[in-house]
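Posting for a labmate who doesn't have an account.
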Amino acid sequence: NKDGQPWTDRFDLFDAAFNINGGFQQRAGEWAAKGQGEHHWAPVKGVYRVYQKVKRAYGGRMHRVCDIVRTTLIFKDLTGLTMALKAIEDDPDVHILRVKNRYDPEYTSLDCYRDVALLVVGPDVTGGFVSEVQLNLESMYKAKSGGGHKRCELCMRFDHCVSYYRNSLTESLA
């Protein structure tokens, strides 16, 4: 939260998210323009979807969800994506907390999904709220929008189940 502490009240959490989303989306549009890309305005993630993620991925710890405020930037090629990434890095009003580069040749996934996902924060842009920026290539965005996102979620659930049963089996054999 604005005091640097994890959110403990879900109503305060969503209130803050709705309050900063407009300014965040506006800044994201500026970053996209620097790479001659397209900004897809994203609403605050829905309460039900957040609770699903908290339960499935974070063991009930709501403060672990970092994409309640999020946006997507779309580019025709990696040159534009890189220009926007540089614009975000050079923006004095935000700090990049994490870069997840799914274009890295070492990155593997069951669904072959690729993007660059950033977690950013800044008092003037995000009000201290950790927010996500996804940088996509146009071709990947089209595949994701055409049902690929649902396939991705199914693959993640499958991978989670496989890991769970693998760990359970390993523990029972030990």
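Reply:
Got it, the structure tokens are right above this. The chain is about 50% helix and 15% strand.
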